[in-house]
Automatic annotation (TrEMBL):
SUPFAM superfamilies for the chain: alpha/beta-Hydrolases
One Gene Ontology cellular component: cytosol
GO annotation (BP), single: formaldehyde catabolic process
Functional summary from the UniProt entry: Serine hydrolase involved in the detoxification of formaldehyde.
EC number(s) stated in the UniProt entry for this protein: 3.1.2.12
Hydrolase keyword on record: yes
Catalytic activity: S-formylglutathione + H2O = formate + glutathione + H(+)
Family: Belongs to the esterase D family.
Protein name, per record: S-formylglutathione hydrolase
Keywords noted in UniProt: Hydrolase, Serine esterase
Species assigned in the record: Sphingopyxis italica
UniProt enzyme class: hydrolase
Amino acid sequence: MTIETLSTVRSHGGTQGVYKHASTTTGTDMSFAVFVPDHEDGAKLPVLWYLSGLTCTHANVVEKGEYRAACAEHGVIFIAPDTSPRGEGVPDDPDAAYDFGLGAGFYVDATAEPWAKNYRMRSYIEDELPSLILRNFASADLKRQAITGHSMGGHGALTIGLRGQDRFRSVSAFSPIVAPSRCPWGEKALTGYLGDDREDWHAYDACALLDQGLRVPDLLVDQGDADNFRAEQLKTELLVEACERNGQKADIRMQPGYDHSYYFISTFMAEHVAWHAERLKA
Ligand SMILES: N[C@@H](CCC(=O)N[C@@H](CS)C(=O)NCC(=O)O)C(=O)O
C-alpha cells in the first residue's frame, strides 16, 4: 500500500498534493488529490471527500473548485479521487462516448463483461482509498468524514453516503444525478456495467435507496436552474419528492441562473465546506 507523490504545492496555508498508487481493486494505477491544511504536530483533521463528474479526473476540482481557502479556514482535509480506472488494457466505450467507460465509472462495482475486472469504483471509494489514506496521511481523522460531489459524482456522494450510513456525518452534492435508473446517462451506465435486471440497479439509485429506508444524517444539495442537464438527466425534483416521502432531512436549493459548470460549483463550494465543517466538528 505505498503511494507515489506526483506533486505537492503550497496554497492557502496548506499543501495540495497529487498522488498515485497501484490499486488492487481496479487492477490499475490510480491517481488522487489531497489538500491538507497546516496543523499542529499530532493534530487530527476531519475529511471531506469530493467525487467528480463525467469526463473528470482529480484535476478539474483541484484547478477550478476553489475549495482550498475554506478548507484551510475550517481545518478540513479535501480528497478528490479519479472517476474511473485508466490505462493500458482498460476497456472503454466502443464509440469513446464521454458518458460511459473512461472518465465515467459511475461509482459502481461492474458485474457485466468486459467491465467487471477494472470498473470497481464503489469498492475503491468505500474500501481501498480510505485504507490507503489512513496509512499514509497521519493527520486524517477517518472517524469524522463527510462526502460531496458533482453530477455523476453527486450521484456517487448520495449513494455511497446513503449506503455507508455510519461513515459520514454529512452528505452534500452539486447538481447530482438523483435517480440514474430513470435518466439516459444512468440507464446507459447501469445497463452496461450491471446488465438488464433493474433490481440490481437499486443500490446505485439514491431515490431507490431512500425508498428502501436508508438515510443520511443531513443533506445539502445545490442545483442551478439554468443547468442544461437538469430536466433530462439530473431530475432534482425526484430527490425532493423522495426526501419528503421518506422523511429525509434535506436542504435542496435551486440556484437561479447557474449552469452545470465549475463556475457554479466554485460559487457554492465554500458554503458546502463550512456546512460540512460545522457537522464534522460538532
Ligand atoms: N459537455 C461535456 C459533458 C460532460 C460534463 O459536463 N461534465 C461535467 C461533469 S458531469 C464536468 O465537470 N466537466 C469537466 C469540467 O467542466 O471541467 C462534454 O460533452 O464533455
